[in-house]
Write a structure and sequence with these properties.
3-stranded mixed sheet; binds 2'deoxy-thymidine-5'-diphospho-alpha-D-glucose; alpha/beta; Rossmann fold; 4-stranded parallel sheet; 14% strand; globular
């Protein structure tokens, strides 16, 4: 990293890199501590040493709404909601957020931070709910719904997330956190119904055959019930807003997975197969 910073004269870091999957963090937390905590520390420290007192640089840290814990039936996460992480994944992201803020206060490193809700769209690794369900439908495999399927997530299309990060990098205030969300809450099981309809329409298959694959399985330990983001700070301060409706985003996503079967078969081979089998085994699928 030191070499990269000096050789390429890096002046901006957008730190998207992370171990990001909650189920993986439950089966093996260590990689999450190494990548998310030590990895973030490494980048921060190299940036601090390379940049000294420069004010024309920026370290933007991409984080998650999961650091705030779980909501009841009402209310939203704001930038001032106290941290309350529940999984090894969210605890590791909370830790990295604290390090980023500490480097701002202690060393004056110019930082911004964003906490985003659930992403979906092209190229998402098929361990996550939406691509997993699309690919399992196409392969006639079970669609595993954790617990009662009533957990709620707030979904934002990946391009909307990226545009929000771009606005923060260009117009955000140093030292500030901005929440990013879709303002688009769905129970998992309701989302899955809609996804089944769209995948059936786009693939020309019978939705009934997909519905028959829905399988309720053992719940995720410590499964957060509801996430919902209040992103009014980002909207009013920086003028960002979501561009994609959920139906539009889901349809684009389904089409992308249908059109990119070679990419899908590559990422679903090798190590991925071992992981998914381990995950299914732990849930009794
Ligand atoms: O909220 C932001 C977070 O969203 C990100 O910080 C994480 O990196 C990202 O993985 C995502 O976390 P979730 O745990 O919410 O995403 P996931 O796609 O794993 O699960 C979404 C919901 O669907 C959750 O309630 C668990 C449920 N689920 C998931 C899978 C993979 C199922 O019912 N069945 C499944 O097979």
């Amino acid at each position: 990293m030191e070499k990269v910073f000096t050789e390429y004269g890096i002046d901006t870091v957008v730190h998207f890199a992370a171990e990001s999957h909650v189920d993986r963090s439950i089966l093996g937390p260590e990689a999450f501590i190494r990548t998310n905590v030590l990895g973030t520390y490494t980048l921060l420290d190299v940036a601090r040493k390379a940049w000294g007192n420069r004010g024309d640089v920026l370290f933007h840290h991409v984080s998650t709404d999961e650091v705030f814990g779980s909501l009841g039936d009402s209310g939203y996460f704001t930038e001032s909601t106290p941290y309350d992480p529940r999984s090894p994944y969210s605890a590791s992201k909370a830790s990295s957020d604290h390090l980023v803020k500490a480097y701002y206060h202690t060393y004056g490193l110019p930082i911004t931070l964003s906490n985003c809700s659930n992403n979906y769209g092209p190229y998402q690794f098929p361990e996550k709910l939406i691509p997993l369900m699309i690919l399992n439908m196409l392969e006639g495999k079970p669609l595993p719904v954790y617990g009662d399927g009533r957990n709620i997530r707030d979904w934002v299309y990946v391009e909307d997330h990226n545009e929000a990060v771009w606005s923060i990098m260009n117009k955000g205030r140093a030292g500030e956190t901005y929440n990013i969300g879709g303002e688009n809450e769905w129970e998992n099981i309701v989302l899955l119904d809609r996804l089944i309809e769209i995948t059936a329409e786009e693939s020309g298959k019978d939705p009934g055959s997909f519905k028959a694959l829905v399988t309720y399985v053992k719940d995720r330990p410590g499964h957060d019930r509801r996430y919902a983001i209040d992103c009014s700070k980002l909207k009013t301060e920086l003028g960002w807003k979501q561009r994609f409706s959920f139906d539009e985003g889901l349809r684009k996503t389904v089409r992308w997975y249908l059109d990119n079967q070679i990419w899908c078969s590559h990422v679903r081979s090798g190590e991925y197969r071992n992981w998914i089998e381990k995950n299914y085994e732990s849930r009794g699928v």
